[in-house]
Design goal:
It is built from 12 helices and 11 strands. It is of the alpha+beta class. The chain folds into 2 domains: about 210 residues, 3-Layer(aba) Sandwich (NADH Oxidase); about 140 residues, NADH Oxidase (3-Layer(aba) Sandwich). Helix 1 packs across helix 2. The longest helix has 20 residues. The protein is globular, with a radius of gyration of 20 Å. InterPro entries: Nitroreductase-like (IPR000415). It comes from Hymenobacter caeli.
Length: about 400
């Protein structure tokens, strides 16, 4: 959800490191051995697999802010790791909570895939709460089969968009039954406004040093840094390959992000990106409550796991929502009354790359807890029934 475009120039070639940091968080394809966990965690095999799949959710700068406390077998408290918040671009933790919603959606999809039903209980009433949800998983016969193919292959694509607008039939198929979606063609007044103001908001954020310094702390240019942290933005997740990728991995450092040449190269690439798309998908929410944001993150994840099957790519570009005065202007410009939570550049692509982003092993974000009250009590409703 949080932005990041940065494109280093190597040997006169502009590298697309691309896109929103939120979008650089695709499922991992790594064979590197994980670093040792902080401590032993007791998990049953199905628990470990469900949490591994849940952690393929996207997050700003690929910070992976989820934290899980195991209260007992298949009884977990889902929380947020405050050390992974992005204070410069997400000071109210709005985007963090949206990312946590995507994590919850993946968790439920993975649980259903393995034959478990989820019972949820909301714990948080603010975006800053350390604990968000309690969940109990129960093995349940007769659950509808959950296909996780789209979850495993979800990928943010930044380049190669064709310019024809999305077909109305595809928009209807992808958003059927999901409230709050609005599609704007690039040649519409709203689409033209989004193109122009995305460029302006990117320029403002790129030259806001606090935002750029925050980004630099999550860049993993070298293979060694990527293996050590298993999070953040890597050359592969930013679509820097070949000789250019080798150069970046060996000679670039986080300090490179602060250079003016680096910032200008990134802005030039933003201009190229917004110049090619099939339009914008905009997602609104009923209000700004924490539960509503969690549900909105679930909704966008349900969309994201479907688009590859239609040959459609998504590239969230949300700088407009992170910078003033653009954030205050977006509803009026688009003619929408409800709060806007996602701005998704979308388009047909001829080639869909495989996922490459890093993921932390399950043991790195799960901790053992004490005995917790059973959340499958009266009043603990499925999350889908607790929408604001």
């Amino acid at each position: 959800m949080t932005r990041r475009h940065f494109w280093p120039a190597v040997g006169g070639v502009l590298l697309t490191t691309g896109g929103l940091a939120y979008l650089a968080t695709d499922p991992p394809q790594t064979t590197r051995p994980p670093a040792p966990p902080a401590g032993p965690v007791t998990l049953l095999p199905d628990e470990r697999e469900i949490l591994r799949l849940a952690a393929l959710a996207p997050s700003g700068h690929n910070t992976q802010p989820w934290r899980v406390t195991r209260q007992g077998p298949f009884r977990w408290t889902i929380g947020c790791d405050r050390t992974r918040w992005l204070a410069a671009v997400d000071p109210t933790q709005r985007e963090t909570i949206l990312s946590m919603g995507a994590f919850l959606q993946n968790l439920e999809s993975a649980a259903n895939h393995l034959g478990y039903a989820c019972r949820w209980q909301l714990l948080a009433n603010t975006n800053q709460a350390a604990d968000l949800m309690d969940v109990t998983l129960t093995k349940t016969a007769g659950l509808p089969a959950a296909d996780i193919t789209g979850l495993l292959r979800r990928r943010t694509v930044r380049t190669g968009f064709r310019s024809e607008p999305l077909a109305p039939a595809d928009v209807r198929a992808l958003t059927a039954g999901e409230p709050g979606y609005h599609f704007f063609r690039r040649d519409s007044p709203q689409g033209q406004w989004l193109d122009a103001q995305t460029l302006a908001a990117n320029r403002q954020q790129t030259y806001r040093d606090a935002a750029e310094q925050e980004l630099s702390r999550w860049v993993r240019f070298s293979d060694q840094e990527a293996a050590r942290h298993r999070d953040g933005l890597t050359p592969a997740s930013m679509e820097i390959g070949g000789v250019a990728g080798w150069w970046v991995r060996h000679f670039y450092t986080p300090a490179t992000v602060m250079k003016a040449s680096f910032r200008e190269a990134g802005l030039a690439n933003v201009a190229e990106q917004v110049g090619q798309s099939g339009g914008w998908l905009v997602l609104t929410s009923a209000d700004r409550a924490t539960l509503t944001l969690l549900d909105t993150g679930r909704r966008v994840q349900r969309l994201w796991v479907q688009v590859r099957g239609h040959g459609i790519a998504l590239h969230p570009m949300t700088q407009i929502l992170e910078e003033a005065p653009f954030a205050q202007q977006v509803n009026g410009a688009l003619g929408l009354a409800a709060p806007v939570q996602f701005l998704l550049r979308c388009g047909y692509v001829d080639a869909y790359p495989e996922p490459v982003a890093e993921r932390r092993p399950v043991d790195w974000f799960v901790q053992n807890g004490g005995v917790a009250e059973d959340v499958a009590q009266a009043g603990a409703l499925p999350l889908e029934n607790r929408r604001a």
